[in-house]
Specification:
It is a single chain. The chain is built from ten helices and no strands. Helix 6 crosses helix 7. By secondary structure, it is mainly alpha-helical. Keywords: Heme, Iron, Metal-binding. This is Heme oxygenase (Biliverdin-producing). InterPro entries: Haem_Oase, Haem_Oase-like, Haem_Oase-like_multi-hlx.
């Protein structure tokens, strides 16, 4: 019988590929955009992870979502360091969320308030993506805009408290496989995972409209 972690990965593969194939990410990884586009993307992450990690604090003792709340994953401190480097010490006064970002963050918050298993779907799509494909973005940013290796500007992508990402992801998959709930609930989680990718892709589409290829 297929494990739930495998089901989650395979069922959302199409949505995952859509995100990877977005014009904005393609231009960013193709080194066709300026550092301002990267900084603007980092701003959006700050709003998304604000919702995600506020939810984590709320759900730390929850029997469904609680096991996924791992402080070594938390990204907000790193994001704030990155934004100070990219936008300057007054960055909090200038950052803004795109409408698509607000919709994404609100959905995460709604799941955290009312549906812990749905929150897990968002937790999975974000953090496991950061541990994997996020490293490609970090490498590109370092090489394209002269950012220090694993330093200011790209700290979001550096998981210093996870020395063995592969082992961590295996443990995470075991948690997914043990997620409480019947078959119907698991199908709802799969659907929420697809929704999470769609919300993320909407942010990329908005960023692509804000940064048409001019650099």
């Amino acid at each position: 019988m297929e494990s739930f972690s495998t089901l989650l990965r395979t069922a959302s593969r199409e949505q995952h590929e859509e995100v990877r194939g977005s014009t904005f990410i393609g231009d960013l990884l193709g080194r066709k955009l300026g550092v301002d586009a990267f900084a603007r993307y980092t701003e959006q992450l700050w709003f998304v992870y604000g919702a995600l990690e506020s939810g984590a604090r709320r759900l730390a003792a929850d029997p469904v979502a609680g096991p996924f709340v791992r402080p070594e994953l938390f990204r907000m401190t790193a994001l704030e360091q990155d934004l100070e480097h990219l936008r300057g010490p007054g960055w909090r006064m200038s950052v803004s969320a795109l409408p698509a970002t607000l919709e994404y963050a609100e959905r995460i918050s709604a799941c955290a308030r009312t549906w812990p298993a749905g929150y897990v779907a968002h937790h999975y799509t974000r953090y496991m993506g950061d541990l994997s494909g996020g490293q490609i973005i970090r490498d590109t940013a370092e090489k394209t805009w002269g950012l220090s290796r694993k330093g200011d500007g790209v700290r979001f992508y550096v998981f210093e408290e996870i020395p063995n990402p592969a082992a961590f992801k295996r443990t995470y998959c075991e948690l997914l496989d043990a997620l409480p709930g019947d078959e119907l609930e698991r199908q709802r989680v799969v659907a929420e995972c697809k929704r999470a990718y769609g919300l993320n892709n909407a942010v990329f589409e908005a960023l692509g409209a804000e940064f048409p290829l001019t650099a």
